[in-house]
Amino acid sequence: MDSSVFRGETIAEVVRAGLVESVHSGHLVELDATGAIVKSLGAIHAPIYPRSSVKSLQASAMVRAGLKLKPEQLAVVCASHSGSEEHFRVIRSILSDHGLDESAFRNAVDTPLGEPERRAWGDKPKSQLAQNCSGKHAGMLATCVVNGWDTNNYTDPEHPLQKLIITEFETLAREKVQYLTADGCGAPLFALTLAGLAQAIYTITTSTDPVHQEVVAACRANPLMIAGEGRLTTRLMKAVPGLFMKEGAEGVEVLSMPDGRTLVIKCADGSWRPMGPIITATFKRWGVEAPDENVYIYGGGKVVGQIEAK
pTM of the entire structure? Predict the structure, then answer.
């Protein structure tokens, strides 16, 4: 794809004392409660890798294939978890409930994603459990056990589970997936347009399908499982009743309200910095009470500006 198209438009400006000091460019789609596009910036019909923002879609395919989990277990399947002991407890419970242990994992190794959790980890070697997608991989393994599928190659794009996930993606997004590669964790990664991603989040939020309702309800009820203490996703889901939210690597963010209002963002440089201000501005427009997630600019210990959403 032409990189000039990928840069998109300005989605936020860093303003210091009235002067624009830096800009964040990218792509943004906002849908109203009917699913209509009411705001768009950038190339919303160009494909992007949604990364971990689509774990709820992957989880829906697992539940549809017969996976039965407790809400906190299902939430951690949808998570990019910080790597706390509570996260590890729930992930291990998914494995043990299905006669598995950590040796079954086929994801990459890593240290915890959360800063406090990484400090607590210390100098222990990287592990598959600590990697932030281990909940998703535990869910994939459990789904294989339920269906009698091979657990050794569950990350193969031709595996029955991955084919079901593609079907779920395409059904929810109402478009064909584009491009296929491996995500950082090793699971298949499919590209969607930003408009298709917004449609998928809107649909899973407003769907009357019991599978979709179960997945979204589990996430809403367990915000600590979805990310971790102190992280933007968990903070906002705790504070805003009914909010569904999920981040993805390289500057992807999705969120929706129970009535279907949806916001999807892709920051072109992969940055997280403008997410709070963009979400705060959107909530203000929607009349949703939420914590102030603006990013303020300081000079000499005093506020001299802030990041302003477009």
Answer: 0.96
